[in-house]
Task: structure prediction
Amino acid sequence: MSTIIVKGTVTTNPFLDNISRAQFVNCVATSAAQTVEVRSEDSTVLGEFYLHLAGDSITIEKAPGDVITLAAGKVSAVGSPRS
Result:
C-alpha cells in the first residue's frame, strides 16, 4: 500500500478532464478492460495505459493542463509525499 494525499473529489467516467489541474491523479477501473488516455492541452495524445480488471488502479503524474479520458472508471486528484 502506498501513501497518497487526497486533494479533491472523485470524478466518474472523465472525458477530456484535467481533474482540477491536478499533477497526480489516481485512476481506478470500475469494469474490466479499460484504456486510459492522456492528452495535452492542444489535444495531442501523450499516451495510453491499460487497466485489466475492475478494481485495478494506478496513480499517474501529468502536467496540470493535460486531460484524462476513462470510459468506465473513477479518478481523483491526489498528492504524492514528494509533492
